[in-house]
Amino acid sequence: DAGVIQSPRHEVTEMGQEVTLRCKPISGHNSLFWYRQTMMRGLELLIYFNNNVPIDDSGMPEDRFSAKMPNASFSTLKIQPSEPRDSAVYFCASSLTENYGYTFGSGTRLTVV
Amino acid sequence: KNEVEQSPQNLTAQEGEFITINCSYSVGISALHWLQQHPGGGIVSLFMLSSGKKKHGRLIATINIQEKHSSLHITASHPRDSAVYICAVSSGTYKYIFGTGTRLKVLA
Questions:
Q1: Closest partner residue to B42 among A50, A56, A107, by Cβ?
Q2: Is any Cβ of chain A less than 8 angstroms from the Cβ of B41?
Q3: Residue range B75-94: mean pLDDT, rounded
Q4: CA B69/CA A37 separation, integer angstroms
């Protein structure tokens, strides 16, 4: 298995632009998580999907953030409009069940200038 | 006080040394994870523990549920072990509480 695949690896965008991050979970994993990592706050859970349904989006910082999981093999995290404070590494992780160990993707390093 | 505390925050060792990283937590847990993150890299899950001890190669993880403490040991450390090691605990749900990480540098 190729693991959890995220794209792009790096994204540099201007403030105000829309940013879309993509994630392909491991086949057969029914839980998918989006995390944000910053120096100040460490790893923060943004949203959790189970069987493609958003279960907990309480970590999504503002309405500028949205996430979708149209099918079991694809999820997106969108920021519109982006702001410099959104600069962080965004990780996608999947697991067999919500209580099983995670497999993380390689992350997307987002820089908003 | 953070619910998950790691020590030390930073650690520099010489190649070959035995390394111990500690994690203490204040909540009831069902599982504890040790994660590894190389500079600029992704996050790799090293261990998931709910009791006792696990070993994988030169890495050993232990947990004492009564004392709410876990340790990650690296034997015969190598420069490629240089990374941030993160402890994360779960109380039985999908939500994890993450420690702030221990930054390890192993010098050749």
A1: A107
A2: yes
A3: 92
A4: 24
What are the beta bridge partners of residue B20?
Answer: B73
User: In the prediction, which pLDDT does B95 show?
Assistant: 84
The pLDDT of B23-48, averaged and rounded, is 90
Which residue type occupies B53?
A: K
CA distances from B39 to A102, B33, B61, B83, B105 (A): 20, 19, 22, 6, 11
- Residue B6 sits at the vertex; the CA angle it makes with B1 and B11, to the nearest 5 degrees, is 135
Residues B16-45, mean pLDDT to the nearest whole number: 92
CB burial string B52-66: b at 16+ within 10 A, e below: eeeeeeebbbbbeee
Residue A7 has pLDDT above 70, yes or no: yes
Are A75 and A84 spatial neighbours (Cβ–Cβ below 8 Å)?
no
Contact B42 A98 (CB under 8 A): no
What are the structure tokens assigned to A48, written together? 């959790």
| Cβ atoms B7, B79 nearer than 8 A | no
Whose structure tokens read 């549920």? B65
Contacts of A49 (CB under 8 A, 6+ apart): A31, A32, A33, A55, A67, A69, A75
Quick one: pLDDT band at residue A98, thresholds 50, 70, 90? low
**Count of other CB atoms within 10 angstroms of residue A56:** 17
What confidence score (pLDDT) does residue A97 get? Answer: 75
